[in-house]
Amino acid sequence: MKLYIAQATCSLAAQLIANELGLNPELVHYDVFGKTTSNGDNFLEVNPLAYVPVLALENDQKDLLTETTIITSYLADQHPEAGLIPAHGTLERVKLDQLLTFIATEIAQKHIPLMRKLQTEAGAEWTRNKIVSAYTVLDERLADGRAYLTGEQFTVADAYVWATMWHERSGAQIGHLQNLMAYIARINARPSAQKAIKDETDMFNLHEAAKAA
Ligand SMILES: N[C@@H](CCC(=O)N[C@@H](CS)C(=O)NCC(=O)O)C(=O)O
To answer: What is the pTM of this model?
Structure first.
């Protein structure tokens, strides 16, 4: 498998889940500004919409999976024994999918126009407020002392929230959400998260060196 990633983006969630499962997909770094890849692949052929993550499968169809929620869920579903996602057809799964859609639409995609400074000040303020409200809902869920969003078990939803900590770049003020911050620190301590950050940095540096050569 090949996993296309970019620096400090939602692809970190897919890396973290692969690491939790002991998988070692070949990582390819995509430079979202320069539009090049670390292995020379034409990224528009990989994803015409030009975003990461993309998971290139080695099946007969050579499927290219996109969408953070789908890639993380797919990997977790292949290894149910790891407990990273509830089984399809259960209410627990529906509730986890609800959480994943919430994170994708109310958090991840709301940060992006802010980081790219694409909104009027009124629009940016509205978006920042929406993001803070969404993280506040997560903070309140964690207030009962649970370790992770659904309880004591780490899941793909936790990986996704961890990968969206872009508040310093987007300007959404969430530093006061203490339960959330303690939870992110818990995830930061997981070896899977540390490996994801290290691998991402290594890939970014390799790509930069190749561009400079
Ligand atoms: N719908 C996609 C969107 C993924 C996405 O927005 N990726 C961003 C990084 S988090 C990206 O690659 N952006 C490329 C760009 O801005 O040019 C998903 O949920 O995975």
So the answer is: 0.97
